[in-house]
Amino acid sequence: MRRVVVTGLGMVTPLGCGVEPTWRRLLAGESGVKAVTHFDVSDLACKVAANVPRGDGSDGTYNPDQWMEPKEQRKVDEFIVFAMAAASQALDDAGWHPSTYEDQINTGVLIGSGIGGIEGIAEASITLKERGPRRISPFFIPGRLINLAGGYVSIAHGLKGPNHAVVTACSTGAHAIGDAGRLIALGDADVMVAGGTESPINRLALAGFAACKALCTAFNDEPARASRPYDRDRDGFVMGEGAGVVVLEELEHAKARGARIYAELVGYGLSGDAYHITAPSADGDGAYRCMSAALKRAGISADEVDYINAHGTSTMADEIELKAVERVLGNAAGKTAMSSTKSSIGHLLGAAGAVEAIFSVLSIRDQIAPATLNLENPSVDTPIDLVPLKAQPRKIDTVLSNSFGFGGTNASLVFRRYAA
Amino acid sequence: MSDIAERVKKIVAEHLGVEAEKVTDGASFIDDLGADSLDTVELVMAFEEAFNCEIPDDAAETILTVGDAIKFLEKNAA
């Protein structure tokens, strides 16, 4: 199988628009979680969320007009604009702008989303009820479909290779990157633009996740303390929004054009729980098999993993993942660090796995593990260093990134420092 | 320019994201103003909304230029 490396990164997160502003603020221990003020939350149990900071584009703010023409933005839900922003950044970062037919057909797109255009669907259903079918826009369908994130990206950049999308709830971003890596490894493409995007912060999605009893409701007055994975006072996840996109490239292709190589994607594992629609199986069996499969594919043993970017959503499921990780690591648990960056940016659902894959790659570049914020009183003892409160410089060559989704769908990625 | 013509041109410029001076009577939505077939469907909906009238599909198919729209609406708008 051909080797696959990461050569470009792009993101829009609650900490900012762009990889470097987000990473800098993440390492500084900043939180992107705030009180929701742009719509009425008075009757919602959860009143906090992690919104992308809007602005004129300076100082790491997100200005959608920089990424998509206003007349096009009007036609789509914001998850598509987020994807356009992250994909443009990643392609610029990789210095890859295919212009020949040959390069275009060898560059594909695989961007997913967990729930896609839920806000636009909610609005259109009101229009349908109140004003009838003749008032439904011709852009209603193409502006909500999940694969249209990748569709718009491919059109904007002339990418004519495989065009695919993943929908696996909170595992979406990791599955997209893993599957895209396989397409390159198997020779279907030389370059893939891959990741996840999500724009779920609206009344309907907050009401829906609150009904599942999945959201944090105990910290409405202290938003920055709301997302607290592994802490005894955690009581649910905090919804976030944004996108993460990477450029994956076949190793020889990257070397031939002198591309900067961030890391190699060496492992990818998948599994299903076959247990419950929203809860992970209590024995952590699905997570265990998923991580084990990724390590097997990478051809490495568990004691080679230096850092794990956990799924860690700040729910009761944190301990199930932790037990599964302990089981995978065995005697190596005491020398491994694991943190949940959701403590800072909330849970970006379908974008989470992609954004966290980027954090994993950056932890290798900068030899530092980002912190688990708000981890003041761990709910269980563990030999694993959960990197409480403060980012931790450490030797990091190999990283495992976990994502687990509703429906019992699991994905793990393994990145390794590139060595010829 | 009639009030209707002015309003039509404003709607066209906004929806298609083109400069006002390009929106002449003779301008074709698709050939001159960069619209695709979905844009034209939405434009017709915007006209219906703004002028509180119904534009049947067979009539919509004959509205290809800014001038066509103005003519139709001057005749049929409430």
From TrEMBL, chain A:
E.C. number: 2.3.1.179
Major enzyme class: transferase
Domain Ketosynthase family 3 (KS3): 1-417
Name the UniProt record assigns to this protein: 3-oxoacyl-[acyl-carrier-protein] synthase 2
Pathway annotation from the record: Lipid metabolism; fatty acid biosynthesis
Family: Belongs to the thiolase-like superfamily. Beta-ketoacyl-ACP synthases family.
Biological classification of the source: Bacteria, Pseudomonadati, Pseudomonadota, Alphaproteobacteria, Hyphomicrobiales
Domain of life: Bacteria
Catalytic activity of the protein: a fatty acyl-[ACP] + malonyl-[ACP] + H(+) = a 3-oxoacyl-[ACP] + holo-[ACP] + CO2; (9Z)-hexadecenoyl-[ACP] + malonyl-[ACP] + H(+) = 3-oxo-(11Z)-octadecenoyl-[ACP] + holo-[ACP] + CO2
Nucleus as UniProt keyword: no
NCBIfam families referenced in this protein's UniProt entry, alphabetically: fabF (TIGR03150), PRK06333.1 (NF004970), PRK07314.1 (NF005589)
Reported function: Involved in the type II fatty acid elongation cycle. Catalyzes the elongation of a wide range of acyl-ACP by the addition of two carbons from malonyl-ACP to an acyl acceptor. Can efficiently catalyze the conversion of palmitoleoyl-ACP (cis-hexadec-9-enoyl-ACP) to cis-vaccenoyl-ACP (cis-octadec-11-enoyl-ACP), an essential step in the thermal regulation of fatty acid composition.
UniProtKB/TrEMBL annotation, chain B:
Pfam families: PP-binding
Pathway where it operates: Glycolipid biosynthesis; KDO(2)-lipid A biosynthesis; Lipid metabolism; fatty acid biosynthesis
InterPro entries, alphabetized: ACP, ACP-like_sf, PKS_PP-bd, PP-bd_ACP, Ppantetheine_attach_site
PROSITE patterns referenced in this protein's UniProt entry, alphabetically: CARRIER, PHOSPHOPANTETHEINE
Cell compartments where the protein resides: Cytoplasm
Chief location category: cytoplasm
Residue ranges constituting the Carrier domain according to the UniProt record: 2-77
Keywords tagged on the record: Cytoplasm, Fatty acid biosynthesis, Fatty acid metabolism, Lipid biosynthesis, Lipid metabolism, Phosphopantetheine, Phosphoprotein
Domain of life: Bacteria
Gene3D superfamilies in UniProt: ACP-like
Modified residues (O-(pantetheine 4'-phosphoryl)serine): 37
Protein purpose: Carrier of the growing fatty acid chain in fatty acid biosynthesis.
Similarity comment: family membership: Belongs to the acyl carrier protein (ACP) family.
Record NCBIfam families: acyl_carrier, PRK00982.1-2, PRK00982.1-3, PRK00982.1-4, PRK00982.1-5
HAMAP family in alphabetical order: Acyl_carrier (MF_01217)
Protein name: Acyl carrier protein
Species of provenance: Xanthobacter agilis
Highest classification ranks of the organism: Bacteria, Pseudomonadati, Pseudomonadota, Alphaproteobacteria, Hyphomicrobiales
